[in-house]
Design a protein that fits this description.
The chain is α+β, with helices and mostly antiparallel strands and 836 residues long. The chain is built from 16 helices and 44 strands. Strands 1, 2, 3, 4, 5, 7, 9, 10, 12 and 14 form a 10-stranded antiparallel beta sheet that branches. It has a 9-stranded antiparallel beta sheet with strand order 36-37-32-29-28-27-26-25-44, with no helix packed on it. The chain starts with a strand and ends in a 14-residue tail after the last strand.
């Protein structure tokens, strides 16, 4: 979208191939829309994958189609403008979000299309949801595919009269938990379209709001006992009001801080003094810039941390568990497992107890999505502490347990997700524990007794364990979902009969081994099967980080309590040798290889005392990605020192699609790794973005050098180098300023290297990198890296990895990691790392 010259109103010219994204927008209109309760087809085959799973149409969507498609809808022009949607980094007009119960969502939008003469405007309409369009009061378009999170597309034509044409849009969808809701209007004509905003603001004011919303970002990656500071690319000419809310990403979405501020004229920085020393975490920052109808909204993220260095720790696992329970009891998020910590430590906070119990039972009774995650610790609470709670509270808990829906064969009209690896585990664990604790009671949704529920759950859990024991986890190394797996596994280890408890214990051992391998200086990192921005950029603020602190003795505690109190209140102990893998001795380096998941995610991990490189090899090469994080670099000098390479899956750097701008890949690359060197070939010619990029955790770096095709970074004694065959361009403005390097072109070879050392070692590392020969043969799609004095490492898009001309296929298809190199071993001389 380009600015139109000399117009008195806020006007834009939209050229061919560009999209219309300037609208006045109504408030959200939302209503509960459940449909009629019914059982669903049980399509769970215990063959878990990443990405969309076709689960059929739930009762809510069947009801939606029968009542909403094609209905008469009267054009409403009486609504007040809530905010403006202005051109920015997103081609779409997007309202994507998460709703825990089936919810009918609607918004009205209006704009003005100006034309000097009559014209038939040709547009391509894409949407998740349904769209109706009125032109000058007459309905002109009705496109209502209403397929859950699946984009529909159609070409439309709007008949415009000379002058200003009033355009009214009605966008709607049915939300079933995570909901991609948007529409996109792409101009197909060669003649540009002039778009005006129908609001009482002049062009300068609207353009000012547009620039402020487009370029806002946090001043740093993490605020350490500092007020939140925002940076804008441009400074306003007049004072602009800014409303700011910091909202946690957890299920309960707590408002952690609220400020009414003013961005002063000619100032490009805004400091929220009262947003300081809030709960540690990577939180959403919700902004309303401007006031009344002349306002825009923007959501970004920022990290908050009390201590940049790991906290002081107790010597024994038992003591660290106790320390974590005491922290969780006082500072944990408002989730039911916090009450377990309170019970274990004797911490008295009746107001928190009552508030958490009330919210937990409300979510379970409403059958909110993810309520299975809180049902398990609620059952633990019932099994372990019923005698310590008021009888009325125990009765209320039992009522909710007995009326819950534990699987798809029980009638329901909710939007609970039963089909992914972590949800299957938690639903089956909930059903087992509920049946064990209330064996003679009748469960209203199924009509079964508790004993029958427990028997059925045990059989279902056997299928789950058969799958993950054979293949490993589809959501490998996930900082978001390992804590969810722990909910079910820790409860089974504690409460299930011996055969199930033993299998849970073995799976816990395996997960902790993978965490230990991928933890550096207290921060779990690495390639992940399912990643989100809020975990990738959070460092020590993920819910997984405290597990590393308790288990291995180095790290951070935070407010995450989805499952940590279960670990700390239970008797399970990770294998004793893992601490040495999590915290490598000076001078030691290791490489590990193994596979995870039904789709055989081939994983390679290399780490030394100060740097870590992790990849997934040849995973769905050339296919559209989901949330797979394929390459990760972590340096030990700072908890936020992290780099990675990916192909963006959406337009907005602060978006939350799957894949997003930073988490996942629009198109998955060809990847290989040997020791401390990883190679990637990105081929994205048929994708929305014909370029790839690397993320730079800038706050954590002591030195950063960008030299043509190379980026070299140091954090403490850990080093990294990243190469791109098409060159590297550092982004200097916008939301990713200073933290993004792009390499333009649809075919690109990338390399990532790590090393470590004291004193002048980084200078030596940089010199060795500059002596490294790299070539990329575009026609053959072959990347060759030759270290000074070392054999050539080659990656072919077709044939894979070779070392010194010899093919090196990946040969480790078991889910248990194998150390394929250990400098501490007696035979470590063969094929040593190249730069470490």
């Amino acid at each position: 979208m380009n600015e139109g010259p000399g117009l008195e109103a806020a006007a834009y010219y939209v050229g061919q191939g560009q999209t219309v994204t300037a609208w006045a927008v109504s408030d959200l209109i939302a209503s509960y829309f459940p449909g009629i309760a019914a059982p669903a087809e049980d399509r769970v085959d215990y063959r878990f994958i990443n990405g969309f799973v076709d689960v059929g149409d739930l009762p809510c969507r069947k009801a939606f189609w029968s009542t909403m498609v094609g209905r008469e809808l009267v054009a409403d022009t009486s609504w007040p403008t809530k905010s403006l949607y202005l051109p920015g980094s997103n081609r779409r007009v997007e309202f994507t979000g998460f709703w825990h119960v089936p919810t009918h969502l609607r918004r009205w939008l209006r704009g003005t299309f100006r034309t000097a003469s009559s014209r038939l405007l040709h547009l391509r309409l894409k949407t998740c949801g349904g769209v109706r369009i009125w032109v000058n009061g007459q309905e002109a378009v009705r496109f209502e595919p209403f397929r859950r999170n699946l984009e529909g597309s159609t070409d439309i034509a709007l008949s415009l009269e000379p002058g200003d044409n009033q355009i009214l849009v009605h966008a709607e969808d049915l939300a079933e938990r995570d909901t991609t809701w948007f529409f996109e209007l792409e101009v197909l004509d060669k003649e540009p379209l002039c778009v005006l905003l129908p609001v009482a603001l002049d062009q300068d004011e609207v353009r000012e709001l547009e620039n402020l919303a487009r370029g806002v970002r946090p001043a740093r990656d993490v605020f350490v006992n500092q007020p939140l500071e925002l940076v804008f690319d441009t400074a306003p000419k007049r004072d602009v009001p800014v409303e700011l809310k910091v909202i946690g990403h957890g299920h309960e979405r707590p408002v952690l801080a609220h400020s009414l501020l003013t961005l002063r004229a000619h100032q490009s920085r805004l400091i929220a003094e009262n947003v300081c020393r809030i709960a540690d975490g990577y939180h959403g920052v919700h902004l309303t810039i401007g006031s009344g109808p002349g306002s825009v909204t923007r959501v970004i993220d920022a990290g908050f941390l009390a201590n940049i260095s790991p906290s002081s720790l107790k010597a024994t696992l038992k003591d660290r568990k106790r320390q974590a329970l005491e922290y969780s009891a006082r500072f944990g998020a408002d989730r039911v497992a916090r009450i377990i910590a309170m019970m274990e430590t004797g911490y008295q906070d009746q107001a928190s107890f009552d508030r958490i119990i009330k919210a937990t039972l409300a979510a379970i009774d409403a059958r909110e999505d993810c309520s299975d995650f809180i049902m398990v610790p609620l059952l633990w609470l019932l099994g372990a502490y019923a005698a310590q709670m008021p009888a009325g509270t125990v009765d209320r808990i039992k009522h909710s347990v007995l009326s819950y829906r534990y699987w798809v064969d029980e009638p329901g009209n909710d939007a609970m997700w039963f089909w992914s690896e972590n949800h299957v585990l938690c639903f089956h664990t909930s059903q087992l524990l509920a049946g064990l604790f209330l064996p003679e009671e009748t469960f209203s949704a199924s009509g079964r007794t508790g004993r029958q529920q427990a028997d059925l759950a045990a059989a279902r859990l056997a299928h789950w364990f058969d799958s993950v024991e054979a293949h490993g986890l589809a959501e490998w190394n996930s900082a978001a979902y390992y804590p969810v797996d722990f909910i079910g596994l820790l409860a089974l280890e504690r409460w299930a009969e011996a055969s199930i408890a033993d299998r849970a214990r073995a799976q816990l051992d395996l997960i902790f081994r993978m965490i230990a391998l991928h933890t550096l200086s207290g921060v779990p990192a690495g390639s992940q099967g399912r990643a989100y921005d809020k975990e990738l950029r959070a460092g020590p603020l993920t819910e997984l980080a405290p597990f590393a602190q308790v288990a291995f003795g180095t790290g951070w505690l935070n407010s995450g309590v989805a499952s940590l109190p279960l670990f700390c209140a239970g008797s399970y102990e990770p294998p004793a040798d893992l601490a040495d893998l999590a915290n490598l001795a000076p001078g030691r380096s290791v490489e590990a290889r193994y596979s995870q998941g039904l789709e055989s995610a081939k994983l390679v991990l290399f780490k030394n005392e100060a740097a870590q490189l992790s990849t997934v090899i040849d995973h769905k090469t050339g296919q559209k990605g989901h949330q797979q994080h394929v390459i990760d670099v972590r340096l030990a000098g700072h908890p936020m020192a992290r780099l990675w390479i990916n192909h963006p899956g959406e337009d907005d750097p602060w978006g939350n699609q799957r894949p997003s701008y930073w988490a996942g890949n629009g198109i998955l690359p060809r990847v290989a790794q040997h020791r401390d060197v990883a190679l990637l070939i990105e081929e994205t010619r048929d994708a929305r973005h014909a370029w790839t990029h690397a993320y730079i955790g800038r706050d954590g770096l002591d030195e950063l050098i960008i030299d043509a095709n190379w980026l070299m970074a140091r954090s403490g004694t850990g080093f990294s180098a990243i190469y791109a065959s098409n060159g590297l361009d550092l982004i200097f403005d916008g939301p990713t300023a200073g933290r993004e390097v792009r390499s333009y072109g649809s075919l690109c070879g990338w390399a990532a290297i790590v090393g470590c050392g004291d004193g002048d070692a980084f200078t030596t590392f940089v010199e060795r990198i500059r002596q490294t020969a790299v070539s990329f043969e575009r026609e053959r799609r072959r990347l060759v890296l030759t270290p000074g004095g070392g054999p050539a490492i080659s990656l072919s898009y077709v044939d894979g990895l070779s070392l010194g001309g010899q093919a090196r296929p990946f040969a480790y298809d078991q889910p248990h990691p194998i150390l394929t190199y250990d400098s501490a071993a007696s035979d470590a001389g063969a094929e040593r790392p190249f730069y470490s």
